[in-house]
Amino acid sequence: MGRGFVSTLNKIAREAAKVQRNAERLQKANQREYERQARLQRQYERQLERDQEKSLKQAIRDQKNYEKEQKALYLEKKRHRT
Q1: Buried b or exposed e, range 44-82, using 16+ CB within 10 angstroms
Q2: Sequence-distant contacts of 68-72: CB under 8 A, at least 24 apart
Q3: Sign of CA dihedral 24, 27, 33, 39
């Protein structure tokens, strides 16, 4: 085999190695991005759950306050009737 042929084979091997490294780098980057998106999704879901719990607790507090006000108004009206 001639030197030119060996040189060409070496160039092809280097290019193949470069392509392989780039593919591996891209695969790792895609995996990191997937993990980042999954982490953000979990964080969003946890925050949504906390917000919903907070809203529910506030609604319960509001309902209890409303009931207290209604009871106070009822008792006030009842006192004025008698």
Answers
A1: eeeeeeeeeeeeeeeeeeeeeeeeeeeeeeeeeeeeeee
A2: none
A3: negative
Helices (H), 1-82: 3-81
Contacts of 5 (CB under 8 A, 6+ apart): none
Nearest 5°: the CA angle 71, 77, 82 is 125
Predicted TM-score of the model (pTM): 0.62
Chain segment 2-46, per-residue pLDDT in tens: 678 889 999 999 999 999 999 999 999 999 999 999 999 999 999
Q: From CA 2, how far away is CA 57, in angstroms rounded?
A: 82
